[in-house]
């Protein structure tokens, strides 16, 4: 089978591989559409998951099932499915303890284009099919289905980690696609006021539609000074971090009220330490919590978030700004994500031809 792969750090290309084998609990799927992720750029050009050779890329997409193992109960060939970026082993002890995303070790629930070949391929393998796949809701567009793999669940997990409550004033740092979904999630969770850090006009326009009230630029001085100016020196109840660096935590802690909570879903690609400012952390006694996590993945989350989209309560169509048709456009779509033109949120490739 043909797949689009990371050949080594900094190099991509088409390769031929054996079609994966289907174990008793597994499914083999063919992708119907795939989306490109900021993480693909980190993986290929920054070696974020390590020096992988000839590893097929892609962890966002929707698919058709072509084969299932003998013990799979709820899926059959021909079913159209949502595919989560994180596919835990649901019988692992980590999953039983509530941390499915770390099944098999730290972050090891992230398998596609990390420990095994991903979705940008004629066929791909899904472990624990009954636990990880979800039936695609009737009438859902392929573009919207792709947003459910990673952008919706990750942005919403940031909201869960920040534990947003009715009436909270919330700061969302970074309004790329993940941060935009955190804005949408914060709004749904009842935030009374949402401050968003970001300046790209396209992102600002969409963030407003999802419920952001005011905007801050990290290029116009410190985030915390701008937050304090907007909140009469009080700060915010919750912060979701969906962009920035190790230094962003300093601003997040300084922007919080005592008792506030930070939910981080941002990938920290460099730096050895996160700095927590001593005084603003209440000299160790400020009750300011910092939570960071990989999104949990799995079928239940896919079904629930899918129903938010299919019921019309969450419109994700604004995220798919660049839609291509045909396998041959995958390299172009990846390059687009690397170059990040001002009007780009997510590139999606509809795979309506044969590779
Ligand atoms: P993105 O690059 O499109 O968005 C990041 C945003 O942060 C941009 O708008 C950028 O302008 C802003 N930003 C950059 N530097 C900043 C700074 N110093 N201060 C404040 N804002 C700054 O990326 P995305 O696709 O929206 O993803 C966001 C992050 O989430 C990435 O790091 C990605 O790797 C990570 N991610 C995590 C998970 C997870 O499960 N935890 C899953 C998917 C993606
Ligand atoms: Zn992704």
TrEMBL record:
Cofactor(s) needed for function: Zn(2+)
Domain Enoyl reductase (ER): 10-350
Name of the molecule in the record: Threonine dehydrogenase
Keywords attached to this entry: Metal-binding, Zinc
Recorded GO MF terms: metal ion binding; oxidoreductase activity
Superkingdom per UniProt: Bacteria
Database matches in InterPro entries: ADH-like_C, ADH-like_N, ER, GroES-like_sf, NAD(P)-bd_dom_sf
CDD domains: NADP_ADH
Keyword Transmembrane helix assigned: no
Family: Belongs to the zinc-containing alcohol dehydrogenase family.
